[in-house]
Amino acid sequence: MWKKLKAYPPLRAGLAALMYAQQGNRRRVQGKHNTIQIETSGTLPFLQQVTFEMGGEHNTIVIAPGVQLRNTQIQIHGSHNRIVIGAGCQIQGGHLWINDDCCRLEIGANTTIAGATIGLADPHAEITIGSDCMLSHDIDIRCGDSHAILDLRTDRRINLARYIHIDDHVWLGMQVRVLKNVRIGHNSVIAAGSIVTKDIPACAIAAGVPAAVKRQDITWSRVKVPMTIPQEELCYGSAL
Known about the structure:
This protein has a single domain (4-233), classed as Hexapeptide repeat proteins (UDP N-Acetylglucosamine Acyltransferase, domain 1). Helices cover 5% and strands 37% of the residues. The chain contains 1 helix and 22 strands.
């Protein structure tokens, strides 16, 4: 039935809104010219227990076709901000937030997030996460400190946040922290419990506090590719 309604966009959008209301989703929108765009032209996004909260003016949230969101909060407090969740993304237990003006948060297509807090707390800052990334649980990606650190001699702020860029096909292990003004290159892996404070190159494994490169010239797969292990290295348990 859903495919047959493709020729009737208003009816399709109306039925989608009714379905979302039955899945425990909530909207709290204040201010002018704030929009939540849930794309219903392709594969219908699935939203369950999702809370949208917006305050300020001229803010936009875009949910692309095929997105799956469960137990997720999306909050914007400020003006002229934009959050985009790309086609086919899956987020379970996420918290996406912006607490300033003129910020941008974009998550690329087919990225999966098992549980992450992703936020911006400085004006004109941006976080971009590429396509086909894999984020484990208890991830914290934060562009901004929410408070100022000043140079005593000049009285100038020295902790301004501008960006976090995570390229395509990056794997973040559980409890990884990514801090402001860093880039993680494509195909890289950040080990569990690491804190990223500086750029990580492409095709690398990084680990530690702060995270440092441990190995290069690697990539990774969501599928456990079988390893060829010499017979003499196999270890067998005792027979039951």
